[in-house]
Amino acid sequence: MKSTRIPNEMESRAAEALGDLLHQVSSIKTRDITFQPASRKSDIVANIDVLGHRHKLVCNVADGQPDDVRRALQKLRTCAASKKDDATTVLIAPYLSPQDREMCSKNRVGFVDMQGNARLMVDEVFIGKRSVKSVSGPGENARIHA
Known about the structure:
alpha/beta, Trna Endonuclease, Chain: A, domain 1, seven-stranded mixed β-sheet, 28% helix
């Protein structure tokens, strides 16, 4: 991962979670993941190839608290208003509640959380991943569609 600034711990974990998700899909090749300068509206940008076409993921990191999630979504909406056709907005957080995930979907923002949940539409590729915690302990049931 390239860096244009030194990320905080949560941003580092967010970039790692994004990279791990992207590496699970054979039709996506990650070119680089960079941390944006503090003056930018986004925290992380991932340049990827999807089925041979270049694409950009413009990502913001939230701590998972409802107010921070709303702020991050607002920044991403601002980015989306001026984004190029090859850019997809993504929210990354340690955990996103079902309500937060629904808010992302309604705003056409992809999401990745560090609990194993993800929803991302890039060109013809859809990634849907859901973590299901069991009552007896932390278990994971994940599916990836590509």
